[in-house]
Amino acid sequence: MANREIKLDAIAEASALFGRNFREARQAAGLSQQAVHAETGLAQSFISDVERGKSTISLDNAAYLANCVRVPLWKLLED
User: Per the CATH hierarchy, to which homologous superfamily does domain 2-76 belong?
Assistant: First the structure.
């Protein structure tokens, strides 16, 4: 059980880190969440949840978001 909790904590931390970094990259690119929605098809509410660390994100969707802001995916996972 403790191992599962550690893994869930690591996933939550990685999701929060991605969200923070994505928000910074989106703002630096001069894009609104609505503009990201228009380009990716991802719901604006989902984008908001990801940025606030309230939602996990699949690798595919993370790649879509990274491409949208023209930043390599690995950079959005860097601490």
Answer: lambda repressor-like DNA-binding domains (1.10.260.40)
CA distance 71 to 73: 6
pLDDT (tens digit per residue) in 37-71: 999 999 999 999 999 999 989 999 999 999 999 99
Q: What is the DSSP string of 2-16?
A: HHHHHHHHHHHHHHH
Query: Among all chains, which residue has been given the structure tokens 């894009």?
Result: 31
Contact criterion met (CB below 8 Å) for 66 and 47: no
pTM of the model: 0.89
Is residue 61 within a helix (H) or strand (E), and if so which, with residue range? helix 59-68
> Which distant-in-sequence residues (6+ apart) come within 8 Å of 51 by Cβ?
19, 20, 22, 23, 26, 33
